[in-house]
Structure formats: C-alpha cells, structure tokens
Queue: 4 jobs
Job 1
Amino acid sequence: MADSATFVKFLGELDVPVGDVALEISRVELQLKALRSSNAELREIDPEGLDDDFQSAIVENEGLIVKQDAALVELRAALAKMIGGAHAAPVVAGGAAVASEPTASPAAPAAAAAADDGVYL
C-alpha cells in the first residue's frame, strides 16, 4: 500500500492539476450518493430480498461502493497534501474522521474510475 505522498507524486508525474483532483472527488461523491440511493430504493421495493435481479444489483453496487470509498479517501488525502502540505486537516469519509493516509494503491482511483458505474434505478 502506498502512502498519500507517493500518490501525490504519482499525480504530479501525470501533471494532474489540483482542480482536476477536486472535480474527480465531486464526481466520485455523486456516484456514491447515487449508488447508495439506488440500493435503498431496491431494498424498499424488495424488502424480503426475493428478486434475484435486484439482489444482484445491490451486491454489484456494494462492491463498487467499497472501491469508490477507498478511491475517495485516497483522492481526498492527495488533494489535502497538494493544497495543504503536511499539516492538512484529517479527511472525513462517511461522516467520520479518518487518517489522511490512503488505504489503496496509487492506481486505485484510476481503476475505480474505469470500473463499471454500478446499477441504478
């Protein structure tokens, strides 16, 4: 696992502007919101979990949510380091403070962005 300094270096080698990282954070946040909303709707429509297609979509979405949550933590940590240096505030994910060190590899955000966008209602 890489630390956020390595990820920032990786972004720098790609010559990624800070604004692009911020836009990607917004895109991932919106995608996560849509995935979670879709899963809530699917569970509301099929509370007993009897529809195989709905259950399959929920499982697929949950897998993507995990990947995108990890990418979001890494992107936020990288952005904090890019704009705030070593004294950046902790990153908040899902309402809880988390360490500003990422938990996934440097390629995770790119891989997550290239991944399937999940199943929406």
Job 2
Amino acid sequence: MLGGFPGPGLESVAVGQLSGESLLFTDNARAPELNEFITEMCRSVGFTPRIHPGRVESVRAAAMVVSEGRCVACVPRSCEAPPGGTIWVPLIKPTLGCPWSLPWRADNTSIEVRAMLDCARVLARSLNWICCDSCLQIRGGEAIISCGQVS
C-alpha cells in the first residue's frame, strides 16, 4: 500500500526499493507475525526496515496514515482495498509467501474439521495460494498451507 511512494503508475515494487522508506507496522498485540514477516522479508534482501513511529490496528487505519505520504505499509494481498489516497502494488523480488496455519484438536476427526480443511484447500487454490492439493500438509492437529510454486 503506497501513498507518497515515488513512481506513479508502478506495476510492482521490489522489496529492496523499500529500504529508504518508513514502513508502517500493525500493533504487535494484534499481529506480531505480520510485523516479523515484514522484518524478515526486508532482511532477506539486505536491509533492516525503518519502522514508522506510529502503529495501527486495521487496514483502514493504515490506509489513512499511508495516504498522508509519510510511510508505506505491507499488507497481505487478501486485504480489501481501502478508499482513495493509496495505491496497491505487489511486492516482488523475492517472491513472497507466508504459510497459513489452521489448528484444531489433534484427536478431532469430525466432519466439521474435514469440511474446514476442504474449504481451506478450495479457497487456497481459487486465490492461487497453492498450486496443488499436496501443498496442504496435515500434521496432528495442524494444517499448513504453503507453496513455493505460486506468488
């Protein structure tokens, strides 16, 4: 999500291009895993993110701060685009992926759990998060959806 980021008409942004930008993080109490993912993503291309001093609790709040042009925000592609003042472009180089975990009690093999896993598989395929059903790995009471073949 970009506000005052240079380059109108951008189709994508390489992660390394964010090295000089102030990145808006979410409140750690709400999504510490997202903040850690963003930090590791930046480190993987050789820089430590410069974190914007404020934190937000929602994508809508992030859009408001970003639209002021003081920072950029990295959000999952599954987020709904907020109203004006920001643009959405995919991050590239490296291709990014974040595992999606679905935990349940390991001894629960109910029809409801099987239905949840079926829905997760269909959703992940329809959103191009996985390339095939084998990308859903089930271990005890956890399903990990992860695929290195799609972006």
Job 3
Amino acid sequence: MSNRRVVVSGIGVVSPIGSDLKSFWENLVDGKSGIRQITQFDASTFDCHIAGEVPDFNPSLYFKNSKDVRRADRFAQLAMAAAKLALEDTGLDLEKVDRTRFGVLVGSGIGGLKSLEDQHTVLMNKGASRVSPFMVPMMIVNMASGLISMEYGLEGSQFLDRHRLRNRCKLDRRSLAHDPLRGRGYLSRGWGGSRNLRPWNSRVLLDAGDEYP
C-alpha cells in the first residue's frame, strides 16, 4: 500500500446547532438539539412536525453575486456557505494556489428537490411556458460543486460521485479512510450533512457537502 498523505486544513459547518465551527462544537459538546418545529413549509397535514432545519440562514452572506443566490437551490446555498467557511478557516491565499489543480467535490443526498417540486407546481397550475429556465441548473445535484468552482475560479476536478450516495451517512468516513488525495495535498472541508471524497489529480481539494435542512 502506497504512503498517501492529506492535510485537513480547514473546516466549515452550517448546521441546525450552529453555522460556524465554534458555536457548532460548543452546542454539540453541551448536548443541545437542533430539532425544532418545521418552518419552511406548512407541516400541519403531516404526522411529523419537527426537523433539523438551519435557523436564520442568510445565503446572501456567502455569494459574491446576489443573482447567484436567487438561481441556487437551498442545498447549493448550504454547500456554498460551508465551503466558504472552510476556505476561510484554512487561511489559504488563493492568489498563491494553482487553481487548475484545485478541485471541488460535493456530496448531497438528492440535490434541488424543492426547485423540482416548485416548478412542477408551476407546470400543473400555469402551464409549461411558465416553468423557469433555471429549473434544471437549480435541481441537478452537481450544481453545488459547479457554483463553488465558479465563485472562487477553481479549475481542478469538480463533480459529484453518484454511486457513493447509496449510503450517504457513510460518505465522510469512507472518504477519509479510503480516498485520500493522490500524493500529498491539502483538504478543506465544509458540510451541512454528508460529504464525499475520491482521489483525482488535484493538489488542493475543497470537499463540501450537504443534506437539506
């Protein structure tokens, strides 16, 4: 077995118990729960009225262009936020990094399900001509890594490894245990749920991921 090394140089967290590393860790250690009443939709007709939502999340804080916020599904907004926090935690100067070898991987359980549901409602109620042309780029699961790459001008490998998502709760453990970067590299991690990692020819890899809180 070859001796492969990777450095986890930064961590970013956007979660129901904290949207920064310090508050997340403190609440985790104190045993605080992030489960609360559902606010993102009317859950009165469902048996379950609680979920682990991310409270007071403002995606505009994490995008350079406000238009990109409107054109991104919530899952991609969460991934962007976690990625930005992870990059900031590294203290990495992007001007001194070879961005052609800076990759981005995002693991997500399903992608932009809300965008798909919203546009299906538009289709049924208003007709096909009113469906947003942004529906597909908002719902596809690999759009999160694409947005992060474009936001920071990263030109290395960026993708979602779909077959890993059969058991998304194990993505992170398997990524570090089995798939370190080829050779030596640095890894920044940001997450709001599950995340994955596979070896490619990237010197630096931003590994972010999310569920859908």
Job 4
Amino acid sequence: MFTPFRGCTPLVVAALLSAACADSGRLTAPSARAPARDVGTAAPSVTLTVNGGGSIVTAMPGDPLAVGWASSGSLYCMRMGGPWAPALSYLPTLSGTETVVAPTTSMSTGYAVSVDCVDAANVHTSATVQVNVGVGVNDKTPIGFSPSLPAAVVGTPYSARLSATGLGPFTFAAGTITPTTGVMQPGLPPGLTLSSDGAVGGVPTAEGDFRLALTATDATGITRGANATLHVGGVASGSFTIVDDGRAVITAVGTQYVVAAGRTIVYDAATRLRADNGIAVGRTADWRGQRDPSTGVVHADRLEVR
C-alpha cells in the first residue's frame, strides 16, 4: 500500500498539503536564473557594419547610415549606442539592417555604434564601429586648394610645391591651356614637370605667361580644380657675357641640368649634348657655355658626360 509523505509526522504532512492547495490553479513564472555554460561550449558571435565598412567609417552630418548586424548562438541582441534611438533597446532579430541618420554636428574624434548580444548562459558578446562625422570625408567637404606659383626664368632651375587642405594625402595633376584655342595640354610649360605629390621642378625653356589648370585629389578620391598663372621670364639681353668651361664630377642631376664643381649647368635642344652612357651622379661632365653673372648658372653650348 502506497503511503504519501512516508516518514513525515502529521504536522509536516498537514503543512505540505496546505501549501499545495494554496498554489493550486496558479502558474509560477520560470526562474530568471540562466543555466550554467557547458564546458567547451563556444561563446556567441556577433558582427557589426556601418555602410558596409570596417571598424572605422566616415560620414557627413545628417548622412544616412546603414547599420547591419548578425549573431549566432545568442538569445537576443540590443542596440547600445550611436545614432540608434532609443540607444539601449532590443533588436527585433539576430540579424538585419536598419537605416539611421548621422548626428547633425561634426564629431571628428568619432562616436561608437555598438551592439551587444546575450546567450542562454547570460554571456555577453559585443561589437563596435567608430563613426567619424565631419570635415574631409566625402564630396560635401570643401578641399582647400588655391595654388600660386612663383615666377620662373628661362634657363634657370626652378623649384616649387603645390599644397591643399582637407583629407590628405593629396595627388596633384596639371595641364597648360593654349591661349589662342583654349585647348588644355597635359603637363606644365616646356622644361617643367609636376610630380604627383605636388613638387614642381625643372629648367623652363620658353618664356611667357602660362595659364595652368591644376587639380588636387584627396584621400577619398574627390577632386577639386583651380587655375593659376605661371610667369616665365626671359633672360635680359647681354646677360651672358662670361665664357665658362670646365670638367668635373657630377654631384647632382635634375631635369635638363647637372651640378658639377659647384656650378649649375643647364642644357636644352640647342646644346651639343653627348651622353652615350646616360647622365648620372658620379660621372664626369665636360662643358662649355655662357655663365649668367646674376645667377651663376651656366647655359651650356656643349656638354659631354663620360
């Protein structure tokens, strides 16, 4: 014969029956305590992107931002910051995309967009993307570019540099506009070159006022153009009155000039040039020409490099 509550005294049995009757017809909520994690069970994973970018992205004030998240092994995920409103709230699913709007004020130091996911063992895993909002991030950002080049002189080595402000580094390019036709030819006036980092150099071979079309491209690929005028002056009549000739080891090489024995020796299409093995530092230059007393530059009639 089965006897309930075997081993209990009548008082204990009465107390248990009274408690059971009192709870009849009422459901008890499940315990909020999460189960312990099994040894070897992997923690949940979560990924977060803003506009499809990496851990740091850029935007302008008020730009739309596509925030995407995905998690595995979690029970739920929560919004934790950034432009989400409300910032602390449950996400509807374990993966998805929401479009939000960047703040309307610049934040060059960035702010965090975060998501936090929780698994059945109450273990949290989070992901964060830094969003920089402000100047220098897209085509709404003005690039500061107002080029001005100092005047040059025919036959005299020239050096200058273009610069711009914004999100660098910048890449520069140039074209020369033909006055009579308005057609732009790539590059600078004859004898001068522009490197992509903005360095201008060489020895100008033609005088005049040259109208230039210059561009600066920032790190995001946005380009701004500007015009500038480069004046290349001629050499005054009678300047070349000193005959200069010599032979010395070349210590520096530039565009259409070499430096030897402390002299800058320039050459052009009119120079009788012989350099069978090329022109390089360490080779010997043998020259004859006219020296400009005002600059000390030698304009070579003849130049041989051995």
